[in-house]
Amino acid sequence: MRLVRVSAAIVTAGIGALLASSASADVSKLGGVAHDCYVEARAATDLPGGVAVCTEALNKRRMSPSDRASTYINRAVLRSMGRDFDGALADYTAALNVGEHAADIYTDRSSVYLSLARFTEAKADADKALSLQTSRPEIAYYNRAVADERLGDIKSAYADTKAALAANPNFKPAQDNLTRFKVVSK
Predict the structure, then answer these.
(1) Same structural domain for residues 159 and 177?
(2) Among candidates 183, 161, 163, 181, which has minimal Cα distance to 173?
(3) Do 96 and 146 fall into the same domain?
(4) Would residue 3 be called left, alpha or beta, if left means φ above 0 and alpha means ψ between -120 and 50 degrees?
(5) Is 182 in the same domain as 110?
(6) Number of domains the chain is built from
(7) Are residues 66 and 112 in the same domain?
(8) Tens digit of pLDDT per residue, the chain (186 long)?
(9) Are residues 76 and 133 in the same domain?
C-alpha cells in the first residue's frame, strides 16, 4: 500500500479558523482587569482593546502563577486572532515560563507556528502537547499532520490526520484534510 496526495496544495484556508478554535481563553477565579481580559478573549470583538486590557492586567495586577499564565494565554488568543503571531508566540512562551497549563499552550503555540510556516517548530510543539496529554489531542494531531505534510512526510501526515479523527470524529479540519489523501495499492 502506498499513500499519495490528491493535491499538492496544503489546506491553509482552515488555519485561521483552526487558530480561533484551538486557542481557548482561560481563566481562574479572577476579578478586575484580569477577568476583563478573559471576557475580551472570549468575545473577541475588540482585538486591540482586548490586548490592552490584558496588558493592563499583566502590568498592574498581582496574581497567582495560574492566573498569570491564563492572562498571557488570553492575550495570545487575541493576538493570534489579530494576526500578531510574533506577539502571540511571546505570550505563549511567557505562559510556559510561568509553568501552568503547558500541554494546551504547546497545542496553541503549534497553531501559531503553522501560521508562520515554521513547520519544524509546529511539529515539535504538537509532539510536546501530545506527550503532556493535551486536553485537545485532535488539534495537536492535526497541527502535526499539517507540519508533517509541509516537511514532506506524507505517510505521517495521513496517520496524524486519522489520529485527529480518532480523537474527535467530528473535527472538521481533519475531516476535510482526510479527503485530500488517496491510498493506492502497489
Answers:
(1) yes
(2) 161
(3) no
(4) beta
(5) yes
(6) 2
(7) no
(8) 343 333 333 333 344 445 444 555 554 445 566 777 888 788 888 889 889 988 988 998 688 888 888 899 999 999 999 999 999 999 999 999 997 789 999 999 999 999 999 999 999 999 999 999 999 999 999 999 999 999 999 999 999 999 999 999 999 999 999 998 887 777
(9) no
- Is the pTM of the predicted complex or chain greater than 0.85? no
* Domain containing residue 174: 1-23+104-186
Cα of first residue to Cα of last residue in the chain, in angstroms, is: 5
Based on the domain organization, do 110 and 34 belong to the same domain?
Answer: no
CA distance 8 to 11: 10
15 and 79 housed in the same domain: no
Nearest to 25 by CA among 67, 83, 63: 67
Measure the CA–CA gap between 75 and 48, rounded to whole angstroms: 10
CATH number at residue 53: 1.25.40
User: What DSSP assignment string belongs to 15-79?
Assistant: HHHHHHHHS-----S--HHHHHHHHHHHH-S-HHHHHHHHHHHHHH----HHHHHHHHHHHHHHH
Which cell goes with 58? 499583566
